[in-house]
Amino acid sequence: MDDQTTTPYERVLARRHAEGWTFLLEAARDPRTTGAVAPSGKALARALTDPVRARAPRPLAVLEAGAGTGAVTRALIPRLAPGSRLDVVDANPRFAARLRHLVRTHPRLAGSPEQVRVHQSLVEDLDTGRRYDVIVSGLPLTNFTPRQAETVMDRYLELLHPGGTLTYFAYLGTRHARALFATRAEARRHRAVEEVMAGYQRRYATGCRTVRTNLPPARVWQLRRPARSLPAPRTGPAPAEAGR
Ligand SMILES: C[S@@+](CC[C@H](N)C(=O)[O-])C[C@H]1O[C@@H](n2cnc3c(N)ncnc32)[C@H](O)[C@@H]1O
């Protein structure tokens, strides 16, 4: 589409349309890693990026893992205080190329493109030599093996500064959908990952809310790395859901 002859609204619509198709194609190519058939909606992106807004105007080191076509990246960029740094990582090279284009052309980054860096890598293998105040994760953790989910969560905790915050989401109702259509082994794997995640929630969660307007609705968790050393696992119920 010719940028000179279209309105900004038409350009946004065209971009969303193109992103929708890219996402669908990647989901068809590799459903387990892509983990969704459409990018996150605005309400979900806002909920995931809340800790960055809450800490403004302090300059922050922020990591976004599993950025896809950049739905959450676009919510993050305007929230970055001057002096902040954002590392964006995605395993998929086609998504990484889109994210680089987003960063190159984003008007808020015109004077400081080095504020945002895109990395094409598994987040487990990412080593920027930096620790983060906030990590925003879009990874489809419930598609992983329990071991992989644990590896990623432990890496997030390592990458956070003491007192730093991790947000991530899980779609609602996936266990019931899997119970209907999945093999027994797949349903068992899903339950085991949920147990792994519940362990991290019991130890580190500071809040969780449901975003019903997303398609599909999603639950957003906020975890905090303790200010001192990481405590040993403890049992008991996860904190009650807040701010539904
Ligand atoms: C559910 S999509 C979320 C995309 C985007 N954050 C959003 O909300 O629209 C998950 C993304 O995580 C990426 N991904 C999956 N496993 C990954 C890993 N181990 N390391 C980095 N990225 C990963 C996929 O390529 C995909 O882009």
Question: What distinguishing features does this structure have?
Answer:
single chain, 244 residues, alpha/beta, Rossmann fold, seven-stranded mixed sheet, 42% helix, 20% strand, globular, binds S-adenosylmethionine
Characterization of the model:
This protein is an alpha/beta fold and 244 residues long. It has one domain (8-224): Vaccinia Virus protein VP39 (Rossmann fold), CATH 3.40.50. The chain has helices at residues 8-29, 31-34, 42-55, 71-76, 93-105, 146-159, 174-181, 184-204; strands at 61-65, 85-90, 116-120, 132-137, 160-171, 205-211, 218-224. Strands 3-2-1-4-5-7-6 form a seven-stranded mixed β-sheet. Helix 6 runs parallel beside helix 8. The longest helix is centred in the N-terminal third of the chain and has 22 residues, at 8-29. The radius of gyration is 18 Å and the shape is globular. The N and C termini lie far apart (40 Å). S-adenosylmethionine binds at residues 33-36, 39-40, 65-68, 71-72, 89-92, 95, 122-124, 138-140.
What is the N-to-C order of secondary-structure elements (H for helix, E for strand)? HHHEHEHEEHEHHEE
Name the CATH superfamily assignment: Vaccinia Virus protein VP39
Structural class: alpha/beta
**What do we call the CATH topology?**
Rossmann fold
What count of domains describes the coordinates?
1
Bound molecules: S-adenosylmethionine
Give the mean pLDDT.
89
CATH class: Alpha Beta
Which percent range describes the beta-strand content? 15-25%
Q: What is the overall shape?
A: globular
Uncertain segments of ≥5 residues (pLDDT<50)?
233-244
Tell me what the CATH architecture is: 3-Layer(aba) Sandwich
